Amino acid sequence: MDYKKLGFKCGIECHQQLDGRKLFCNCPCIVHDKEPTVFFERKIRAIAGESGKTDKAAKTEMKKDKVFKYQARETSSCLVEYDEEPPHAVNPQALETALEVALLLNMKPVDEVQFMRKTIVDGSNVSAFQRTALVAVGGYIETTQGRVGIDGLMLEEEAAKKVKEEKNEVTYDLARLGVPLLEIATAPDIQNATHAKEVAEKIGMILRSTGKAKRGIGTIRQDVNVSIKGHSRVELKGFQELKFMEKIVEDEVKRQVKTKGEDKHVRKLNPDKTTSFMRPMPSAARMYPETDIPTIPITKDMLLKIKLPELLDEKTLRYEKKYKLRPELAREIVKTGVILKNYTKLKLDNNFIADVLINYPKEIKKRFNLESKLSEKDFLEVLTYLEQGKISKDAVLDLLVKKVKGQKINLKSFETIDDKTLEKEIKKIVKANPKAPIGGLMGDVMKKFKGKVDGQKAMSILKKLL
Ligand SMILES: [Zn+2]
Question: With contact defined as beta carbons under 8 Å apart, do 312 and 209 qualify?
């Protein structure tokens, strides 16, 4: 596809939840919470915006005449979420993280942060508006296709999560309402579908580098704005995984090529990786100033106090060099936040250690359907047996499975046998089945000495004998 010729224009909006406390109260940002104990309902009216007009998106929503039901718990919400108490002062950690991200994105912070109210009529905010503030402007990131501008960074409240939708009734859960959310909007500098994914990945990496971003599915979401020459802008809403971004953006371009005279609109992502019309594009009529929260001046002192973190990409490269790790293992070690230096004192290959730490828990989950809750102590114990020659490499997984199951470890059953004995035993097996293929013989050997011998060593003895 010739993106240049088509006049491809594309920018991304990235939404990242922050960890810690909520933006305007002291409730913790817990997503997985107990059963709800608080229930209430509201009807929401569309409110005219600054311009005096009710915007188009709001009108579409209002025609539906719905009742909004809310469920909550006292562990993760208070009167602020229920809109029965004014917002408290802005969470200073959240503001500091927003400024930290702004600096990492080469942006200029504003002189004064002023929160605005943005009309929300789908019921996902009890108050019928979302509080949002512009924190910084005019930044950029470097990419393989050149610089991509970062136009704005907003600090805002996360909306409540929809848990049920019936004909005239929508139920929202309030655990997520008020979680600090960063919104980062790029300039329309993205050059093609592959580039869109690269930009989203880079912004995600920068956000995670702060150590203050929430992790897990749904904690980061991307909206991608796409248009080609002569066509209105279309927003593809709510990417949670970047895996399919390339294909979906490419498909949108193909769709626009085939379509004529369409209005600006928002499209939702379907589970089968297609998109469909969701609603008209919201207009600027939705913002008005929040008078309950005083403006916050951004001082030089505030900015000087911020310590910028090492970016995860840089850390990965450093680990590759320092520990001689394969790139994919270095990336995973950095991503999962494992403290590798606590293991590198062991006289074992660092790549093997990293493989055990990263991939064995996945293997245990896949093969035994066990959720691995292995601690550093568990890993160190088992790896130390290996270092001391008490067990073979092949026994490491079995021992970790025992640890996950909480079973006692009897090292005797895992004791390694010396090379001489092993060779003698293998000879016996070969003699008993002289015509068997090497794979079959190997199977017999491993069945007899499961966990006690190193597979590679047994194989090389077998090859020697045949
Ligand atoms: Zn609260």
Answer: yes
